[in-house]
Structures are given as structure tokens and as C-alpha cells.
Amino acid sequence: MTTGIDMGSGRDGAPALLDLAELLATRLLVQGNSGSGKSHLLRRLLEQSAPLVQQAVIDPEGDFVSLAEQFGHVVVDAACGDAELQRIALRVRQHRVSVVLNLESLDADEQLRATAAFLGGLFDVDRSMWFPMLVVVDEAQLFAPVMAGEASDEARRLSLGAMTNLMCRGRKRGLAGVIATQRLAKLAKNVAAEASNFLMGRTFLDIDMARAADLLGMDRRQAEMFRDLERGQFVALGPALSKRPLPLRIGAVSSVDRGGAPGLMPLPEQAPEDASKLIFEAGANEPSPSPWPPRPAAARPRPPANDVFRQIESYRPTPAPEPEPEIPMDPAEREAIMTEILRELMADPETRTRQVAVLYQDFTVRCRMRRIGQASLSLDEFRRRLAVARAGASADITGSERWQAALAAAASLPEDLHSLFLFIVRSAIEQTPCPSDAELAAVYGSHSPSRARRLIGYIEERGLLVCHVDFRGQRTLALPTLGLETAPGLALPRTTAGMPRGARG
């Protein structure tokens, strides 16, 4: 089961699904000339994922403020000032509120500074607030330009640094960047290079077509196809979309698009002489002309920051429309379904490297899809169950008294070591050979055997583990507080560099 959201239709009319859980870990880059349908694509993505994940939209033209009416997004006027924006961003992450940062009232320099302040506030929060969030940036070439423009160098530097943090370091903090640009050549390369998913729309310049073809792994002779794409047609590639270039057409949206181009309208019918009078003669109620050159507009009054804070604190997310309603079931059946969902998560080889907050988001989505409720487990309870699931213990083992004693002993360790400790306990109860450093590293979520050895040494220093290597070089891990011991494992390398203190005999 995947957390797929429907983006439209793909080849042969099949649904084009985007794996939301994968997107949170791999980021997305959208490219297309003006009029290719980028904003429509972003709106479709936001609408389909709004009930499933928290969202923040950086909106330079005010096109996405209509999301507030239908999906409950809070519109933040960026004119409130940089310090207020940082505080608002902190509370956005704390209360898990979906927001639209409206920048349309600011000039180019102020837009860059406001974006840098807001993204910095989302980025610099305590680890306890690292919940999954989609951060959608429209017209990303404005905020991460490849060269200086009309804005000051300082504002450009601040904005570029914030965008680089979002795309390069945001994943560990739960921030999944979704950036859209008119031209890849205008976007800073260190920002674009961090995306693993791509949606390429219509473009005409040779340099942009060549770069799009390179990113999609296509032959340069195939780059001409990007000229023939219609509005709303894109070519998709990436782990969250398709392993091969996939043409797709974006589906319809339900919210109002303020940024749509005006349609054709017939001209009023009038005689040429009447048209001349309209141009050269003043009308009855015609306002007086403004002086030339125009005077700078008066600064808009900044909204009180307390009003924005109050709106965020009183925010209630829009409930997911599907599935409805929750199916009544007995606790044993509900427990069995949650166990099955955890088993499905563990079957994914990339699960061990994902953050607990991302896995919890995936778990809650799967629970809603199985119609057993949105809050089946709290985050703390999910962490405990995830540690048991990563240890791979059977139902007979988890129901034993020794296992309950192991859970009590694990409580004295940091949370990220629970699964590693319980995996060793399981091996000792089953009397299987002592796990290798590579196996322990995989359970912990690392590829470094040396890191696994350091973690064993840390647990040993806490008095919960004793590591012994016999004369044949076979390691045994003993658990003195539980009266358990693993069977001897494979012979270790002769070098003792990096081994735990107790493993050197």
C-alpha cells in the first residue's frame, strides 16, 4: 500500500499517482515556461495532499490565498515584518498549521528578506517540532537566482541561503521542498540539484530543453518534445513519480485560481468618431491624472502580529473528506490491522533510514485508508511500537515476561537505541548467533559498522550489555540485567580498532 495522491492521467489514461511519503524524503522540481501550467500543477498537488500533510506556500503573487476558503490555510501577510515572520513560522511548526505566505504587497527586495525570515523560522526549531511539511515555492528563480537582479546583494544572499537550507538540509527537519521555476537556467544550481523528482513542462529555449532532457536521463535528440507539450502536460521522473520518463496531464482543481490569464473579450461596438472623443476629451466623472513620474505608494499598514498569532493558535485543520466514517470494530481487530500496517512499513527497505515523524505520518495515513481512525496511536506510543517492529520479535517473544523486563531496561536508553537493544534481546532469547556489526547498523538505520560498534560500547558503559570475544574471535553479547546471552557469532576481524572496551578481552 502506498500513500499515492492522484495528479491526473498518465499513459493510456491510467491514473498518475505521486507517492506522498516518498516525496517528503526526496523533494520535487517543476519547470515550465509561463503559461505551461506550473501553478495549476502546484494547486492540484496542494489540494490532493491538504488533508494528509501540513503545507506552507511561498506565494509571490497572491495566487494561492484562495486555498484558505476551501482547505483552511491561514494567510500570512508578509508585510508584518521579519521578526514577526520568524515567530509566526515557529508557531506554524508548533501547532502544525498549513499557511500561505502572501508576498504580493512587497517589492522585490522585501520579498527576498521576508522569504528568508520565514524559511529560517521553519528551519530553526526544536527537534520535537520536526513534523513532516510540504514547503511549496512558486517562481523559485526569484528567491534562488543564479545571478544578481534588481534586489540588493544582501537580500539575495539571505534568500539564497534559506532556499539552500530548505533543499539541502530540510529533509532531516521534516521540510520537503517543492519548487517551481520558469527556467532552469535562472535557478541556482545548488538548489535545483537537490531535487530527486522532476516534472518538466513546455519550454522553448535550447539551453532549457537540454537541461530538462539531462535531468530526465533522455537523449538530447528527444529534447525537442518539450516544445510540443500542451498546457498542463508534463514529463515526470523520480522515485515518487516514475522510474522512467512518464508523460502525464494534470487533473482539474476545485479552488479558484486568482493567477489565471484573462480570456478573450469582444471589443465594444462604437463609431470611430466616438472612440476619438473617448480618448481626447475628458469624461464627466473622470478622475484627475496622477503626477508623472508617479509618486511612491504609501506603505501599507502592517497587520498586528497578535492577530496572526491568534489566528494560528485557533486554527483547526480541515478534516480529511475520505474515508468516512470510521468502521466500528473490536479492539482485537483494530490491533491486528495496526500490526499489519507496521509490518508493511518494515517491509520497505528504506523505512530504517526515515525519520520517526515521517513514518508516523505514513502510518496515520494508512490507518485512515484502512478506516480505523486518524489517532489510533500517539507519537510516543508509535515510537515504542516501531522499536519493537524493528527488532523483529515474534508474538510469543513479545508476550513473555523477559520481553517486558527488556522494555523496562530499554527505557533507560535514548529512544533511538531502543530498537538496537531490543534486537539484541531478541537474538539472546532465540539463542541465535550474535548479530554482526553490519546487521546492528542496519537495525539502527545506518550503513556504518563502526558506528554500530560505538553504540554497543555506549550501551555497555550503561551496564546493560557485556561484550565478550573468545579465543576463536567469536563475539558474544550478554545482558546481565536480564540473565540472557546470545550464541557466539562469526569470527571478528583480528584488528581491535574501534571495538567496545569490553570486546578487547
UniProtKB/TrEMBL annotation:
Pfam families per the record?
DUF87
Q: For bias kind Pro residues, which ranges apply?
A: 288-304
Tell me the SUPFAM superfamilies matching this sequence: P-loop containing nucleoside triphosphate hydrolases
Spell out the residue ranges making up region: Disordered.
283-304
Q: Where's the Helicase HerA central domain?
A: 11-110
Q: GO molecular-function annotation terms? A: ATP binding
Does Cytoplasm appear among the keywords? no
Domain of life, per UniProt, equals Bacteria
User: What InterPro entries does UniProt report for this protein, alphabetically?
Assistant: ATPase_Atu1862_pred, HerA-like, HerA_central, P-loop_NTPase
- Asked whether the UniProt record includes Chaperone among its keywords, one would answer no
Q: Which UniProt keywords apply?
A: ATP-binding, Nucleotide-binding
* The protein's name in its UniProt record: ATP-binding protein
